[in-house]
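Below is how a single chain appears once it has passed through the pipeline. First comes the sequence as given, then the structure the pipeline wrote out for it. We keep one example in the README because the format questions we get most often are answered faster by looking than by reading.
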Amino acid sequence: MPTFRYKAYNSGGSAVSGAIDADTERQAMAQLKAKGLLPRELLEEGAPGTAAKPFSFQRGVSAADLSLFTRRLATLVASAVPLFEAIVSLHEQEENGFLRQVLARVRDRIAEGASLSRALASEPKIFGESYVSMVSAGEAGGALDAVLERLADFLEEQDEVRGRVTSAMAYPILMMLVGSGVMLFLLTVVIPKIVVIFEDSKASLPLITVILIKFSHFLRGWWWIPAGLAVASVPLYRNAMKRDSMRMKRDELLLKIPLAGGMLQRLILSRFARVLGLLLSSGVPIIRALDITSEVVVNRVYRSFLHEVMEEVAQGGSLSGSLKKSALFPPLLVHLASVGEKGGTLETMLIKAGVAYEREFSTRLTRLMGLLEPLLVLGMGVAVGIVVMAVLLPIFELNQLVK
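Resulting structure:
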């Protein structure tokens, strides 16, 4: 009989995990349901693809597809359409093949009597823990349509931010690729043909020309060394990132990079504040919300500190007081959290802070791209100019000798 590993929530909202024996996944789900557990991950031991990451709003489908599904479901639920009929309708009109298969399984589980959150929790590759927790809180509070609307808004906004970053980086990356291609062409095709003239003349060459010739010879004769290093760096990096200590060092380094580190911090703060505010406004308890948010915030420096914050809040401390102990959280966020705690509007203040940091990130991104583009053009011009100068200098010297 197969053994299934599960991660679930008990009736008190605490996370539990363990193993259960069952003939099929459906039987395993039924056993967990009988025990009063809400599964968020159920995987058969030894089955392929068991390395699913449970903490994410979406995986396996695009954010646009998931937000559209969530928006449509919210509209149907708000229109008093029975949940089963709503899922059936969305399944029938879904064009994304993978998501359509997922909705078919969700529909079958709801038909067996499972709640929406339980049905979604059985698909951790698509509906992450944060998504399922908010849906579960919405069901418990009788505000499922409002929670789904907030989820759809959040997914659309995150997709918009991702699109802005992609669009901003497209031009610099293209410039770097074109510039690298031009330089490789000059060094491996053009320069070797011109060098023959200098070698036949037996004249002494300028240092810059000698360096360029040697570099050209190296690329033509030993090109496999840099190519091999580039290819080998990928598995080496992946193996290094399997260790938590290396991941922590990488994340610390990312935060210290000039300009980019500050932008990354704003993006992390925006995601932290918006996700935490969204979870709290949906009725998720603060300890559970902090636990989920610490995993959504992928930077391990922040994640490690948030675990400490969670322990302090669980012992009766305030969120703002805990955040104030670290320079990772700026005074603005701490102050807004403090005002929210005192006024009973913590979730509203956190969402406002998230919006503010998202706008600040967008502004910095626009400025950085405006600065980076002319710098790239200048860099390409300087590189090509050096090559041209290395070629022209010995030609001028040859002319002088002829005269």
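The chain has three domains: 3-44, 63-127, 143-403.

See the next section for the split statistics.
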